Amino acid sequence: MKISHLGPAGTYTEAAARLYSEAAELITYPTVPEVIQSVITDNTDLAVCAFENSIAGTVSIETIDLLLKADFPLKIYGEIVLEIQHGLIAKAGTTIESIQTVYSHPSALAQCQTTLQKILPNAAQVALSSTTAAVEAATTNDASGAIAGATAAKQYDASILLQDIGDEQHNATRFLVLSKQATVPTGDDKTTLVFTTSDAEESGSLVKVLQLFAERKINLSRIESRPTRQQLGTYVFSIDIHGHEKDKDVGQALAEISKHTSWVNVLGSYPRWK
Questions:
Q1: In-domain check, residue 13
Q2: Do residues 165 and 251 lie in contact, with contact meaning Cβ atoms separated by under 8 Å?
Q3: What average pLDDT does this structure show over 81-91?
Q4: How far apart are CA 61 and CA 65, in angstroms?
């Protein structure tokens, strides 16, 4: 089995992919669209993409925007929840006091803001495409540090000056596993769907959609909105519910949802992460 993920090697996304399958061949791509396209073109079997963080919320705007497209061709096949422990990393011999620039992925910077203000209040913060790219930059530039994980530090023979500098304990990131294949019910599943309401001016149109699930005692665990990019004030909604689309109650709710939506796309039902 081949799994694609955002590169370079040494990122948290790689760690998530490895957690999902130790035996799979991991293949890196430089952008999220290329990661997803590799599954569409059958170059890989699955794609692992960062989705949301317990502290900073949405991790990858690219991922959510692709999922919200009405014609998104893949299914969510699974999820991975990875505990995140950020370290302050620099090349050997660097002291904390000498660091003038801190590199990292935007989400990692956001997850360490309070700590950075305490330990490096005057350091410039520079966002890069990945935590691994941040370590590479820190080890090739003087007076620099990076926020990343231990794997990336080891890859570049860098020193971990401080461990676990995240602002909150229990920091975790949720990753989605994307596939052309659908899953069968396991008894403990999630279903993710995206939709636009039928009329932006209709009073309570979003509530009417959500009531379809509430009436059947189907738990809603996430709701998010993004602009449709077509008209100001119109949104695409993305929700997670507990249950599989083939479950009786979930299936009934999904059958009725078209009454209150312009379009709806069930992105997939998949086992909940334990």
A1: yes
A2: no
A3: 95
A4: 6
Averaged pLDDT score across all residues of the chain = 92
Residues 242, 260: one domain? yes
Report the distance separating Cα 188 and Cα 210, nearest Å.
21
The CB density around residue 215, as the number of other CB atoms within 10 Å, is: 12
Q: Rounded mean pLDDT of 143-154? A: 95
Return the ∠ at Cα 152 (arms to 149 and 158), rounded to 5°: 100
The token pair that represents 55 in the structure block: 């502290």
C-beta separation of 32 from 178 below 8 A: no
Distances (CA, A) of 135 to 9, 91, 163, 212, 268: 12, 9, 14, 48, 35
Q: Is residue 72 part of a domain?
A: yes
Residue 227 to residue 237: CA distance in whole angstroms: 9
231 part of a folded domain: yes
Sign (positive or negative) of CA dihedral 196, 198, 199, 203: negative
Indicate whether 61 and 157 sit together in one domain: no
Kindly tell me if the per-residue pLDDT of 72 is higher than 70: yes
- Contact (Cβ atoms closer than 8 angstroms) between residue 29 and residue 17: no
61 domain residue, yes or no: yes
The domain in which residue 16 lies consists of 2-83+171-179
pTM recorded for the entire structure: 0.86
